[in-house]
């Protein structure tokens, strides 16, 4: 999940995470994301995978207008914010301890007439699933949420619960370690998985997954 403490040594060469604001331009809006590494660690900084997935959404690869979407392990909420600006109704989720920080970024970056399209909600993978209807979402989004092996089973359970036969899952990540490939192998047991985008500059892949008993495509 997005809220995981990292050792300080892991931050070497990543001074951008110490900046209090990260500024982006998506969907004809300037988005200013507040960052707070010291308080919340990886949940409170913008990772490259979130930028690449936001760019992919802006490219129009999926139809977002009127779409029901959820972002898992949202952290700063960038992907969910961009999806809402592009017309989706988005539930932006993370663990309870990160919610106030997440809400502040969502509220600061969505115009008033769009704020009703974005709901910030608690979701710890594999838990409190009863607060979400099975197959509730058309689109499930995750940026850099595949990195802790002990969360893989819970993440898969969550993806299975939230997706219907028509749902599309988009996961953006770097393939850093063997465990990343292990997750993709686990995912392929339940879903049809394909790589739909690669950003060579940031070394980020986007994978599309759909339940196996459905036709391809949105």
Give the structure's gist in a few sentences:
It catalyses: L-lysyl-[protein] + 3 S-adenosyl-L-methionine = N(6),N(6),N(6)-trimethyl-L-lysyl-[protein] + 3 S-adenosyl-L-homocysteine + 3 H(+). With 218 residues, the chain is an alpha/beta fold.
Number of domains: 1
Largest sheet, strands/sense/barrel: 7 strands, mixed
CATH topology label: Rossmann fold
Secondary-structure-derived class: alpha/beta
Q: Could you name the CATH homologous superfamily?
A: Vaccinia Virus protein VP39
Mean pLDDT: 88
Strand order of the largest sheet: 5-4-3-6-7-9-8
CATH architectural group: 3-Layer(aba) Sandwich
- How many DSSP E strands? 9
Number of helices: 7
Uncertain regions spanning at least 5 consecutive residues:
1-13, 214-218
Relative helix content = 25-40%
Radius of gyration: 16 Å
Strand content: 25-35%
Shape: globular
Task: Indicate the topology.
Blueprint: E1 21-26, E2 29-34, H1 37-40, H2 48-58, E3 68-72, H3 78-85, E4 89-94, H4 99-109, H5 112-115, E5 118-122, E6 137-143, H6 152-162, E7 163-173, H7 178-190, E8 191-199, E9 204-211
Architecture overview:
- It catalyses: L-lysyl-[protein] + 3 S-adenosyl-L-methionine = N(6),N(6),N(6)-trimethyl-L-lysyl-[protein] + 3 S-adenosyl-L-homocysteine + 3 H(+).
- InterPro entries: Methyltransf_16, SAM-dependent_MTases_sf.
- It is found in: Cytoplasm.
- One of its GO terms (biological process) is negative regulation of protein folding.
- Keywords: Cytoplasm, Methyltransferase, S-adenosyl-L-methionine, Transferase.
- The protein has 218 residues and is α/β, with parallel strands linked by helices.
- The protein has a single domain, classed as Rossmann fold (3-Layer(aba) Sandwich).
- Helices cover 28% and strands 29% of the residues.
- It is built from seven helices and nine strands; from the N terminus they run ββααβαβααββαβαββ.
- It has helices spanning 37-40, 48-58, 78-85, 99-109, 112-115, 152-162, 178-190, and strands at residues 21-26, 29-34, 68-72, 89-94, 118-122, 137-143, 163-173, 191-199, 204-211.
- The strands form two sheets. It has a seven-stranded mixed β-sheet.
- It starts with 20 loop residues before the first strand and ends in a 7-residue tail after the last strand.
């Amino acid at each position: 999940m997005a809220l995981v403490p990292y050792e300080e040594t892991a931050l070497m060469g990543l001074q951008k995470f110490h900046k209090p604001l990260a500024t982006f331009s998506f969907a004809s809006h300037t988005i200013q994301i507040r960052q707070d590494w010291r308080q919340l660690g990886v949940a409170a900084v913008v990772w490259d995978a979130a930028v690449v997935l936001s760019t992919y959404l802006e490219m129009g690869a999926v139809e977002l207008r009127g779409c029901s979407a959820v972002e898992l392990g949202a952290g700063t909420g960038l992907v969910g914010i961009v999806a809402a600006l592009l017309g989706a109704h988005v539930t932006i989720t993370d663990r309870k301890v990160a919610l106030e920080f997440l809400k502040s970024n969502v509220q600061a970056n969505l115009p008033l007439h769009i704020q009703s399209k974005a709901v910030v909600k608690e979701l710890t993978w594999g838990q409190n699933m009863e607060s979400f209807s099975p197959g509730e979402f058309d689109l499930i989004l995750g940026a850099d949420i595949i990195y802790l092996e002990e969360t893989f089973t819970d993440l898969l359970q969550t993806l299975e619960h939230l997706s219907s036969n028509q749902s599309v899952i988009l996961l953006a990540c770097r393939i850093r370690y063997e465990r990343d490939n292990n997750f993709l192998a686990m995912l392929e047991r339940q879903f049809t998985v394909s790589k739909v985008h690669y950003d060579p500059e940031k070394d980020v892949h986007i994978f599309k997954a759909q339940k196996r008993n459905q036709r391809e495509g949105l």
